[in-house]
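Annotators were shown the component list below and the corresponding predicted structure, then asked to write short factual statements about the assembly.
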Amino acid sequence: MTGTPTATALALADDALILSHRLGEWAGHAPELEEDVALSNIALDLLGQARILYSLVGDEDELAYLREERAFRNLQLVEQPNGDFAHSIARQLYFSTYQRLLYERLASGDGPFAGLAAKAVKEVDYHQDHAEQWTLRLGDGTTESHERMQRACTALWRFTGEMFEPIEGGQGSGGEDGHDEGYGEGLDGVNRQELAERWLSSVTAVLRRATLTVPDGPRSGAWTAGAGRQGLHTESFGRMLAEMQHLHRSHPGASW
Amino acid sequence: MTAVTTGTAVEATVETTAEAYEAAFDAAVAADERIEPRDWMPEAYRASLVRQMAQHAHSEIIGMQPEANWITRAPSLRRKAILMAKVQDEAGHGLYLYSAAETLGTSRTELLDKLHAGRQKYSSIFNYPTLTWADVGAIGWLVDGAAITNQVPLCRCSYGPYARAMVRICKEESFHQRQGYESLLALSRGTPAQHEMAQDAVNRWWWPSLMMFGPPDDESAHSAQSMTWKIKRHSNDELRQRFVDICVPQAETLGLTLPDPDLKWNEERGQHDFGAIDWDEFREVLKGNGPCNEQRISQRRRAHEEGAWVREAATAYAAKHSGKGASGDSGTGGARSARLVEKEATA
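Structure shown to annotators:
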């Protein structure tokens, strides 16, 4: 496909699809009706983003339902099970902060993702706001909520480095020597080091306001941050895909 | 006004006033005027509305479960988006209806507690399981269709807040119903396996949908009073008949059959005759012995109990930060200031 940064589009689409799916699991289980509305709202936004990104690459259903685990390029962060509400919020905080910074950059450029980023950035801004609000309430709420939020932030910390790893398969993603500053095909205007710094300062500010300790564990390297961008996922992901794809795969060629 | 000095006179005045209020209320209802939250209303009218609106709100939120059961397995991204949007709408409908009920002097917390304790009901239909993807389409077509038939007259209900909530809800419900129908049509015209799946779903959902209109008129405890008060506009049997007459031609277009050998057009009545409903089954489901009663209420309770610490956190946070520019549940001031901190940090 000429002019379409396929590998990057796929990676960003997979992030959105998989997180949307996880949020969809909350439907009817949220702590408040308002949260049922909010979480499904966010899930829908993400699903919409995924569909637009997939359309740049090929058929959305083929891409979502007929690829196997090793072919998915999403971050390991977004495939992490929902856990308790604090885990879901920590995952949202880490991911939506990243997504807002990235899409803001893309929207202000003239690259292949500028158009969709301009639309998505408004949604993502809301997602981040929602995650921050809850991080503050849980972190600075009761002793129990503080402890749960701290555990969640710490547990997911090791998955945050991957957001700033090069996206494999596109021009500009650089060689294997690690010296390349490139991020991913079509993300040429984005400096991933700068993105990583801004992400860290944003998340740090929110966690401190929420009276939480910024985790100090490793964020990248073998067995810490994942390799989702290369199709290496965590164990729960395969089971999630099995559920997601089962019906579609049971009726080959059918339309719905 | 003359000062009232004797006990008898006071009683007489109070009585006269109550009678006057009651007469004014009756006149307003008769003139199709809306009763509003601050208006005087008979206690039984208030209680009846609370019961009905609570049951309606509970049905919206319990009704999320059978459909949410398929969100993670929806067979295409388009269908998944539609289903997520629908379940989200249902939570929103629950919120409207709890708010409307709160205008009568109750609270959402109190109503939810009663639901969780089994002291208030929700629609019997949601005690049936969604066993295949086609059930999602059948629910859209039949269950939402029955709900709309029931609810459109409620847009003219005598109680203003309920009527206005129903106007908003009915618009979204009609949209869901069309989507359900369209989804079922895609299955019916799809592969033989998909067609069979659609037919099987209609077979399982048809009778429970007819039960949604409630017991037959001669057994309906609240009907007469509700109709006098113009909370209800049509009897259960009238609405059920209307629904059957709407569904028969739709089923033909769908290429699906309705599972009732006695269903046939009655030229004389200008309506369809249809078979007997299994009222024993209906009563069993209402008593809590339907296929999913236990599961539905347990899930609802579990969500509430497991969410308690989250709600407590929000309350504690709001208490700590009240007056400091951050609000308890909907303010965005906190996040905005966090952004400022971030901007300063990166400047």
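Statements collected:
1. Strands of chain B lie at 264-266, 271-273.
2. Chain B is about 65% helix and 0% strand.
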